Amino acid sequence: MKTLTINIPDSVNEKDLLFQLAGMLFEKGILSSGQAAEMVGVSKVEFLETVGKYGVSIFGESEEDISNL
Question: Per its UniProt entry, which superkingdom is the organism in (predicted)?
Answer without folding.
Answer: Bacteria
